[in-house]
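Board notes (copied after class):
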Amino acid sequence: MSDIHVGIEAIPPDLFVTVREAYIALRQAKVKKVPGPDGIPNIVLKEFAFELAPLIADMYNTSLREGVVPPSLKHAIVFPLRKQMPPKSVENDIRSISLTNQVAKIMEGFTLTRSLPGIYEDLDCKQFAAAGMSTQHAIA
């Protein structure tokens, strides 16, 4: 019988985030982006980065230790976006857009910067979701 709970000793220390990293990520928040479901404007995260960085780092590290993402970070505002006007069918001419919390995006960035280098060389050469690759690369 295997234990699902991950103990802190099983997590490599380089996966944890420092307060400085959290501060830098908060300072890079795009202020012209629309707030997510939490309603917190990104300017607040950017302007109060010094005060919020220890909280964000602790929330990420605790989430990593416990293996649980806070439920409030899993919410999104979803709305339809027309591909063409007028849409002829819902299935083909409308796509959904999700607005998520900026804090969730920042935490996702922490995970991405730590995990992508280790798997990048294992990605299929036809994988165009990685940085620097686009749909234009796929078409070419």
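Comment from the instructor: Residues 49-66 form the longest helix (18 residues). The beta strands are 76-82, 94-100.
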